[in-house]
Amino acid sequence: MSTLSPQRLLELKLHATDVREGIIRSLLAAGSGHSAGPLDMADVFTVLYEHVLNHRPKEPLWDDRDRLLLSCGHIAPVRYSAMAYGGYFPVEELLTLRKFGTRLQGHPERVRLPAVETTSGPLGEGLAQGTGMALSAKMDGKSWRVYVVTSDAEHQCGLHWEAAMTAPKFKLDNLIAIVDRNFIQIDGSTEDIMPLEPFADKYRAFNWEVFECDGNDIAQFTETIEKAKAVKGKPSVIIANTVPGKGVSYMEGDYAWHGKPPNKEQAEVALRELQAERERLTANG
Amino acid sequence: MANALDGVAAMRLAELQDAAGVKQVPTRNGFGEGVIEAGKGNRNVLAICADLSESTRMLGFKEALPDQYIEIGVSEQMLVAMAAGMASTGKVPFIASYAMFNPGRSWEQVRTTMALNETNVKIAGAHAGVSVGPDGATHQAIEDIAIMRCIPHMTVVVPCDSIQTKRATLAVAAMNGPVYLRFGREKTPVVTTEETPFELGKAQIFREGKDVAIVVCGILVYNALIAARKLARDGIECMVVNNHTVKPMDEKTIVEAAERCGAVVTVEEHQISGGMGSRVAEILAQRRPTPIEFVGVADQFGQSGDPAELIEHYGMGSSAIEAAVRRAIARKELRPS
Q: Measured between CA atoms, how close is B85 to chain A, in angstroms?
């Protein structure tokens, strides 16, 4: 059962709309970057930062924080936006995305921005590092958890499966992987480029507990992650089915938006749509 | 002659003069001893191995400190990335495989998760060089120094014998930052003693001389000393510099050696391209242009064979070093004074 009250659910939906706005504004300011993935993961990152993580935005390197890793570093704008709206840094800083001297590098860097936990961008490396962190926590008797957000296409990387094989060996039930299953990658559909299906079966065969849900349904994702946290003796993966470009009508489902930002006119349309969504939610709520 | 080696107070002079009498121990043994000592002194020191615990000499650690030992199987990229994750939580992981596989296979993980992340992971690269012997070219890492020394933040250490490898292991455990520690498989001469000092980043003058500076790292230090002794019979006095820290290199000692001798020979069990000697050349080209001869593998792969035979075949034996010294002197004499 979801732990969210109707009021809390509404707050989270509105928050996700803010996060999407931050993505659009930062990408427009940057003039380059990825649109579809960040937008489709806005709901997941909202739930993680606002509901799931045990963390202290004003003390980002607090020792006992849950670790949230973004393995597919190219969707960094969603993380940055969720961090800004979550109180880690001023929202205006989002406009420095990808600019010289910024903490918000085109692909995130651990040393520059505290609490991004890993440097990522080269795909397939997040689960491996997250496995190491979760193993450390087990060895030291710590109760913090590790969440690793991955893309679907990075499951084409060998290292990701080395990690998928390793985590169950050490019974890392403090490790939860979340897959952005949006079926797109730069050159087209994942199933055309290098098929991933039967995707859930692959994880089951590697001895993971597997959950599937709608990654754009905040209530459903919240409920799923609570179930994953209750799993004992093995790691869990949540295959979060998402719509690429979610929240911006002309981007939804179009892989052409994987790796490019909106121009000024397109951004204005997107921001108008997000404002309309905000009004719709408030009116219904 | 005897006095010429006094630069190394603790050098086993008598043994060095009689090759048959030199104590021979694999450098990897020094790593095995050092990592146990480091682990006993700090419970955050971990040994992580990719299915090569005996040959990388991590087995002793596994037996002595089982709670600090992790086995992850044949997955070298995982070895690096997982260790980087653990290091970010305060662990000090030593990760061991053959140098050919780590950092050979895992280079991008080393660059991104270890170095760009500035994590405190120590790579133990075993079985470096053609002296791996019968296993052949696939297992003989001779490009590893090149691919490690070009990565920012990385410290690269190539100790000369088993005692120094133990010292180096303890030294890198005590420092904060990513490290590549390189050692070999075969038994090789022990040229230092327990009393020989060791400091990261500080090259050691093992023999004083004025005619040519032989700058050498790793197991070939012995061959360099032998070559120097032979050359001394002809009145050629070589300085021998044990340049164990390839990065950050002791530029001061290198420049001073070049100034003193006016010619340099670099010696390493590695491709000439991109190795320790290349770094020496970079330094001297900028700060003290000096004729340099390079002893190392000349853009070739290794092959199966007896280690000593391979060292000779690829031009890294004492006679090859001697010849390089003579070439360097000839070039020095050609230069306008």
A: 4
Q: Is A259 exposed, middle or buried (0-12, 13-18, 19+ CB in 10 A)?
A: middle
Which residues, in sequence order, are bridge partners of residue B45?
B92
**Residues B45 and B7 grouped into a single domain:** no
Could you give the C-alpha distances from A151 to A48, A116, A122, A204, in angstroms and in order?
16, 17, 12, 18
Q: What's the mean pLDDT in A48-75?
A: 98
Identify the structural domains of chain A with CATH numbers, from first to last. 6-284 (3.40.50.970)
Residues of chain B contacting A121 with CB distance shorter than 8 Å: 112
**Average confidence (pLDDT) over B131-150:** 97
Cβ contact A166–B75 (<8 Å): yes
pLDDT value at position B334?
A: 79
Q: What are phi and psi of B179, to 5 degrees?
A: -135, 145
Q: Which residue of A has its CA nearest to B105?
A: A159
Q: Give the strand pairing for B238-242 and B204-207.
A: antiparallel
Domain that holds residue B242: 2-22+195-334
Same domain, B171 and B262: no
B116 vs A contacts (CB less than 8 Å):
109, 111, 119
Residues of B near A (Cβ–Cβ under 8 Å) read: 67, 70, 72-73, 75, 77-78, 81-91, 108-109, 112-113, 116-118
Chain A residues with CB inside 8 Å of B74's CB? none
Structural domain count, chain B: 2
Report CB contact under 8 Å: A136, B112: no
Contact check, Cβ <8 Å, B78/A162: yes
In this prediction, residue B17 has a pLDDT band, given cuts at 50, 70 and 90, of low
pLDDT tens column, A173-223: 999 999 999 999 998 999 999 999 999 999 999 999 999 999 999 999 999
| B201/B322 same-domain check | yes
CA distance to partner chain B, nearest, from residue A245 (Å): 28
Give chain B's count of helices (H) and strands (E).
12, 14
- The predicted-structure confidence for A265-274, as pLDDT tens digits, reads as follows 999 999 999 9
pLDDT tens profile A3-49: 799 999 999 999 999 999 999 999 999 999 999 999 999 999 999 99
Report d(CA A90, CA A85) in Å as an integer. Answer: 8
Whether residue B223 sits in one domain with residue B181: no
Report how far apart the first and last C-alpha atoms of chain B are (Å, whole number).
29
Q: Which residues of A touch B118 (CB under 8 A)?
A: 110-111
